[in-house]
Give the backbone structure.
Amino acid sequence: MSNVAQSAALELNGSQNLKKWGGWILGVGIWFLPLLWTDLTTYLVLTVAGITMGMLLFLTASGFTIILGLMDVINLAHGAFFAWGAYTGFTALTLLNKYGWVETGSLGQSVGSILICLVLALAIGWVLGVILEWLLIRRTYGSHLKQILITMGAALVMAEIITIFWGPNDEVVQTPAAFTGSIDVFDVIVEKFRLLAILVGGAVFIAMNWVLHKTKLGIIVRGGVENGEVVQTLGHNIRRIFTYVFAAGAALAAMGGTMWSIYTQEIRPDMGEENLIFALIVVVIGGMGSVTGCFLASLMVGLAFNYVAFSAPTLALGVNIMIMAVILLLRPSGLMGRD
Amino acid sequence: MPDTVLTLEGVQTFIDQHHILQGVSLEVPAGQALVLLGRNGAGKSTTLRTVMGLTPASRGSIVFDGADITQARPYEIARAGIGFVPEDQAVLYTLTVEENFRLAMLSEDEASFARQEAVFELFPDLKKFWKSKAGVLSGGQKQMLAIARTMVNDHKLLLIDEPSKGLAPILVDQLAESLNQIKSHTTIVLVEQNFHMASQVGQDYYILDDGLVVHQGVMSDLAQDHELKQKYLGIA
């Protein structure tokens, strides 16, 4: 009798282990699947490209997810900050190029022009974020329908203002000289700008975690994402803090836009929309309000997009939507989301 | 003649279209634990939430420590000196015990840290779980954390909503003991369904029914008054 019970218990234990480890093996193993139809060198090139894309997506999606988690605000104008950041960077690079800093400059001038672009994008994003929050968002607390309608309108207006200032056509963005070209690591061609993008994305992730876990502001934000009411009754003005968080999210999206435009070397007024779709997919996969979940999801989306785009370009976006659907089926609250 | 810490005058509160508080008036004298009693849905919790500004009053006035706080926002009320311990052990699960304390500490000065040390003497368990997520604490420990974190501030008044809910009887006695120590330096308004706990801690009481104060008096008298208890509290 006890033997039967024991073996049943073992079996149960085994099936739980299988489920746990199976999930891990599947979750990690699936990223090696492309090796079946690509050779190792191509695979590594695609992997670097995927991580780059993931890091840049993270810059937009992380702001979106905290804004959603903290005040339950759906901001469909988030992609517009991305586009404004891209155009800010483009304008700065065009001006700097007149002084010979961009296409021909020294290493110092290249680094300087990237820094100038990023700082300007952060500033523009922050200012636009404060204006939008103050003008529109705070009137829509608690109503998702109002938020969706008003921020969609704001996104259209912001894209139209871009066409007024910069015209409706695509523009070519110059990459600063020191970051053009690539380096060769054991036959794997790695573009220099990709390394920079990975560096910037990683630094933002680390900085964000530091703020969220080591500062009082971070504790208030994390507490607020979990239960805003309790945090208010502990004496914190969560609305004012939300304005800062909203502006910071907008600034990061704008910074992401600048990096993205230099990476792809082109910009269009409606580039925010496409980015918003990716950001939404990332937020759903990662789980609302979770920065780590957002980071992992960004990498997943970036990698999947690049692996699939290499062999079947038309399926690239579809595959990400499929990943989102599978995650929603298995874990409705996302990778790191709360139930 | 004791001072009055908190005065509610004809307070009416709506939640959506529901008229929850229909004119609550009460006075909280300084230096004691006042108990709000009443059936489920009588408006006890809403009274505390209205004082805290979470469900603002649409009519009437709330005066705390000489200042009108009727229209103040929750964070302003907390900073004015009212600590709130919500229902259902509302600690922040994803934060550590330490972070829960840090979140509650309004000014990180020496006096606050001294009070924090004093709190550990009252609730020694919290020190043991200092670096753990609050979500792993037991129900009783969560309740202690929810009360303890408000005590790092120099609050004049603590509003505590059903602290005994879901706790084992032995923990309820411990909690009553702790509250009795707290009330020696901080005025308490306690909403409590557990009559045993209420009579251990409370001095004066108010009974609410259908959003109105229907009775008030001294706890030790109520314990003897079986008719009144039967009528409004449904206990013999």
User: Anything to note?
Assistant: The first strand of chain A starts at residue 171 and ends at 172.
